[in-house]
Predict the 3D structure of the following.
Amino acid sequence: MTSFPLLNELRTKTQKLHSKLEQESCFADLMKADISCGQYVAALNSLNLFLATLEPAMEAYLTKSDYVYKPRLGCVQSDLEALGHPPVLDTPRRTMTDTEAIGAAYVIEGSTLGGKILHKRLQKQDFIANANALSYFSFYKENTWSDYINWLAKQSLSPAENNEVCVGAISAFELLLELSHQGTDRQSANRESTIVRTY
């Protein structure tokens, strides 16, 4: 496993949040043998809100020659559209420093890497496969995690800058946790409104 001081610090400082995200959010549903359309849409809604909030700053700051952040919001929105659930488009953007953006990239690139495992599970669900709604969880094939880690290992940052990178990662994890509940709430609201229209 790749290891260097800043990466170790990122792992240590975000470990609890990472575990909480996997166990106590809508993303826990993605690890189940069977997942409903509502559960999958809730996870995609959360990712849509998350990426729409952070990606503009990521694209603005992370434009280095050997690591350029590749946006993946369009993949999530494409998956939602394919499943008949238009994504929320009016999401407020979050500002951050360039070093905070490095930390946020750690969370997003890690999430993308995790898609390698989830992709195998999710493609077995007929409603996902038939709708071809796996654009986001196929993004790991771009190998952006390796690009990011190799670039991060070469950075010469001060202790204060390292801390700010960790702050950016922690903030991104906290945002994703918060939005994971909103994604579920939005799915529930959509289901309720559908029930009302049915009657």
Notes: DSSP finds seven helices and two strands in the chain.
